[in-house]
Design a protein that fits this description.
This protein is α/β, with parallel strands linked by helices. It folds into 3 domains: 96 residues, Roll (Ubiquitin-like (UB roll)), CATH 3.10.20; 92 residues, Elongation Factor Tu (Ef-tu), domain 3 (Beta Barrel), CATH 2.40.30; 122 residues, Rossmann fold (3-Layer(aba) Sandwich). 20% of the residues lie in helices and 29% in strands. It has a 6-stranded mixed sheet with strand order 1-3-2-6-4-5, with helices on one face. A 6-stranded antiparallel sheet has the order 10-9-12-7-8-11. The radius of gyration is 21 Å and the shape is globular. The C terminus is likely disordered. The structure holds FE2/S2 (inorganic) cluster (FES). FE2/S2 (inorganic) cluster binds next to loops.
Length: 343
């Protein structure tokens, strides 16, 4: 026989939808998300970004109907099976929910290479057991055998490379990033979920200027997007600004300088916020990029990396004339792991 624990943390008069999850029943107040209610009641449920981006909190409604907004960004096949994101689900009726079925979400991939590109960034290449349809710049969730799950953006371009490539920055206290940097070896298999996310290149107007700004391992989606655009014959100028504190963080400097030399419409700018180097710009990447390009009307803008930088640059790009629909962001949201900004 199983017993249920009922959440009594809301005043009895509060109108609330009840959510059953395993042996817990929680009451979500109006405006409260399923994830907030479950965490308040001490339920164990995976999550990361808490804003509908990373897909870590995906769950299944086995009874009741979730609001349509809670299924935003989920593949049609999963939406049809009543999957939803608990972090953006504000229930309007009683629900019974369950964790996702592994077979619906996860596949396996074999690690084929781990290359340490700097003292805290490594490049991981993987081969999926089943073919994946994706765009450079989307992200994958990697799940370790103990269930620890994190999101990483894809630097590989499917029409150019047979492998999936991610860049992992070792973070202070980061369980996954330190494990990947220190322990992950070629030959190991790992669960992958995705790809997901809307920060990628699409052909559209091939003459449209593009501005790409990223810091630290935020370079991963940007180099993928730039290479995808060049492969597709994009003719407009592509300006990429990579920011880090010191020159040791410019972990693909040679590759990017070579791209700059090889393509008349690709322009690479290495930006150091603290170090000195005659071949680099000095200052924060977003400040330098937005000072160089003061009128972004009809530009496409891609912003990736440390969330406050991404949000600030998004606002400033909009004020400089970029249409909101032309600004693509990939903010690296983390859960309680970071005590200092990503470089
Ligand atoms: Fe819900 Fe990230 S999508 S925690």
């Amino acid at each position: 026989m199983t017993t249920s624990s009922t959440d009594n943390t809301l005043p009895p008069e509060t109108p609330a939808a009840r959510v059953r999850y395993g042996d817990k029943i929680v009451r979500c107040a109006p405006g409260e998300t399923v994830l907030e209610g479950l965490l308040r009641a001490g339920a164990e449920i995976p999550y990361s970004c808490r804003n509908g981006t990373c897909m870590t909190c995906i769950s299944r409604a086995v009874r009741g109907t979730v609001p349509a907004e809670a299924q935003k960004g989920i593949k049609d096949t999963l939406r049809g099976q009543d999957y939803f994101l608990s972090c953006i689900c504000k229930p309007t009726e009683d629900l019974e929910i369950a964790p996702p079925e592994d077979a619906d979400l996860f596949g396996r991939a074999a690690v084929t290479a781990v290359d340490h590109l700097s003292k805290n960034i490594c490049r991981v290449r993987l081969t999926s057991a089943t073919p994946l349809y994706y765009h450079a710049g989307q992200f994958l969730n990697l799940r370790r055998d103990d269930g620890l799950t994190r999101s990483y953006s894809l630097a590989s371009v499917p029409s150019l490379e047979p492998y999936l490539e991610i860049h992992v920055k070792r973070l202070p206290g980061g369980q996954m990033s330190n494990w990947i940097y220190d322990d992950l070896q070629p030959g190991v298999s790992i669960d992958i979920q995705g790809p997901s996310g809307g920060c990628f290149y699409f052909p559209g107007n091939k003459a449209q200027p593009m501005l790409l700004i990223g810091n630290g391992s935020g370079l991963a989606p940007l180099i993928g997007i730039a290479r995808d655009a060049l492969k597709d014959g994009h003719t407009g100028p592509i300006h990429l600004y990579h920011g880090t504190q010191f020159s040791g963080g410019l972990y693909l400097d040679d590759t990017l300088r070579q791209m700059d030399a090889d393509h008349g419409n690709f322009f690479y700018n290495a930006c150091l916020s603290r170090g000195e180097d005659a071949e680099c710009c000095h200052g924060r990447a977003e400040d330098i990029a937005l000072a160089d390009h003061t009128d972004l009307s009809d530009w496409r803008v891609f912003l990736c990396g440390y969330p406050p930088m991404v949000r600030d640059a998004q606002r400033r790009a909009f004020l400089a004339g970029a249409a909101l629909a032309d600004i693509y962001i990939d903010a690296f949201e983390l859960r309680d792991l970071r005590t200092e900004p990503r470089e």
